[in-house]
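Hi there,

I know you've been waiting on this one. I reran it after we fixed the sequence typo, so this is the corrected version. Both the input and the resulting structure follow.
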Amino acid sequence: MKKYNLLSFILLGITFSNCGDTKKGENSIFNFDTSKFKEQYQPQEALSLEILNPKEKAIDSIVYFTNDKKIASKKGLEKLTFELKDQKLGYQNLKALVYYDGGNSEATARVELVSNIHPKLLKYTIVNTYPHDIKAYTQGLEFYRDTLYEGTGQYGKSQLKKTDYKTGKVYKEIELDSKYFGEGITILNNKVYQLTWKENEGYVYNADTFKKEKTFSYFKNIEGWGLTNDGKNLYQSDGTEKIWIIDPVTLKEIDFINVYSYETKIKSVNELEWIDGKIYGNVYQKDAIAVINPKNGAVEGIINLADLNNKITKLPDTDVLNGIAYNPKTKTIFVTGKNWDKMFEIKITE
């Protein structure tokens, strides 16, 4: 087995996406010539787009789109070479708007763009071990001014709190209403953003006082999972392969990326952390962290943390690895899990 397939097993278990899904348009007048299409493409490749005209209509021009964004216009039936290097990973929904005889008609098709990056297996060393509240079902973890903030889940047990990471002492905490299941958190501009799981609702608090400043609805009907920020925008996971880029003021979608480890779509991306220009993401129920390029969604590295399970106290409610916090003061990463009694400070190396 090739090394990159082994790394995908660490992340997945493994579940391959449905690759054989080149979608042909059902248009009876024009169609894309899909006879030369492959099931998957990589960013260094290009698509040759050609429209079939079986009824021999007089074609004036064709306007091409991918994912509803215009990419080119051509006169007549002139072919189009479409470079994929600047496209986001995931399905490319192709559309050709064909103008003919004073009218127009559409042709559609779909191909999958996957990563060409073979993820590196990264190593870690444990620097320190600290106590962690074994009752905390960790959903979000982040440092702010050398203080550790944590969001926890479970109905009737969800909290937001800030603690002394060395001792576990709680400085301040608030509880969510019992009908809400707390999820990921992040801090930006002295505001704490917190998600809920299935309630399609989030909150904005003052980071110092925990006074709730805003309740907001998600921009679409999705689940709330992980949350982080790059100093400008928020990044939200929803349990699929998508990470949404969100405006922190309007809380509306700006864009999104799809997460791929080489040729494989990575679903269940959970708790997120922004570290040195990359997104570090827990993959739910896989004791691993994926290092994700936020520009295109490609997994560039994988940290296998399965051995940490042997260093914690196992109780009936002890759950999976979840929780990543980068401390810029120490330049180390802190990781824990749901109902873990320990938190580990680690350093990452290749």
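Quick highlight: The first helix runs from residue 3 to 12.

Best,
R. S.
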